[in-house]
Design brief:
Nuclear Transport Factor 2, Chain: A, alpha+beta, seven-stranded mixed β-sheet, single chain, Butyryl-CoA Dehydrogenase, subunit A, domain 3
Length: 289
Amino acid sequence: MPQENFEQNFLADRFEADRARLRGVAYRLLGSLPEAEDAVQEAWLRLSRNGGGGVDNLSAWLTTVTSRVCLDMLRSRKSRREDVLPDGAPEPAVTAEEAIERETILADSVGLALLVVLRTLSPAERIAFVLHDLFDMPFDQIAPIVERTPDAARQLASRARRRVRGGDSLDAGQVAQKSVVDAFLMAARTGDMAGLMAVLDPNVVVRADVFAGGGQTRELVGAQKVAAFYNGKAQTARTVLINGEIGAVVAPMGKLLMALDIRIEGGRIAEITVVGDPGRLSEVEVSAL
């Protein structure tokens, strides 16, 4: 076997051993499996061109390169060009069915609420937090990626951490409210009508804007109507802090589609305001619980 092919195959094997880990890094940074696959594949392209010469720790090098690619993608969010892969490259991407299955598994493992919060961070904050808090990368290695000093990178991660862990210090009232919202979402997901009725005020009101209401504003009044509407729904809804208050978001694969402002009185849900307007959602501050 020619020396060039041997080295290419060797690099491909080394890269393949790191692929799953790199995909996990990229997915947490980008919140999208297709984009994560693109970022990982770009890391391979750069490795194949570089040849790995002079790299002491290939895994760390691949993590850094993948993170830089993700940072560029976060900044631009534009379609990436397609490169022709050289001979010996690992097979890229996956089928549509495999992508859906993988993304579902990844979203479950990361936590949908966390993905929602990560999407609201600046690219640099997201990179610093994910690499340090989730993958234990030291700040002196993160700093060159985000083009900051190590101290500045530490501050980026700290700001992100406050958003991500906003629910760590709930007061007693918020803890009680969270239990009501959790029970509501669980009953909705499992089709438990009795459970829904138990947490809804008899005169509960639900109001949804035109984006959340299927093209028209919607209002439902009364526990029976509201329970019937939510029965079997909320599969991708999670309890979060919305602007510092207990609420919920609907976020398939971590992509924020709706925010539920939930008012609780006497231990029951009295009012739900559902926001789907992208403009209003962009101003919502979400913190994970």
